[in-house]
């Protein structure tokens, strides 16, 4: 989040406009984490989905709140 928002501020782009890019990149990273948990660590998808929700949801909520506040 810091990298995406830092580049956005450096380029003069609003954080609201940078948020979707962060959310897409973070969803991909969280999905990879989910895949590793299911494919390599031996967890079931049902066990990994709550972890995915936290790993994806909490940082996205914080990023959304920061983007919303910066307007």
Could you explain the architecture of this structure?
Keywords: Membrane, Transmembrane, Transmembrane helix. The chain is mainly α and 71 residues long. It is built from three helices and no strands. α1 runs antiparallel to α2 (15-39). It is elongated, with a radius of gyration of 14 Å.
Instruction: Return the average pLDDT rounded to an integer.
Output: 95
Major beta sheet summary: none
Number of helices: 3
Proportion of residues in β-strands: under 5%
What structural class do the secondary elements suggest?
A: mainly alpha
- The Cα radius of gyration reads 14 Å
Instruction: Characterize the overall form.
Output: elongated
Distance between the termini: 17 Å
Number of DSSP-assigned strands: 0
Which stretches are poorly predicted, pLDDT < 50 over at least 5 residues?
A: none
Classify the helix fraction into a percent range.
over 70%
Encode the helix/strand succession as letters: HHH
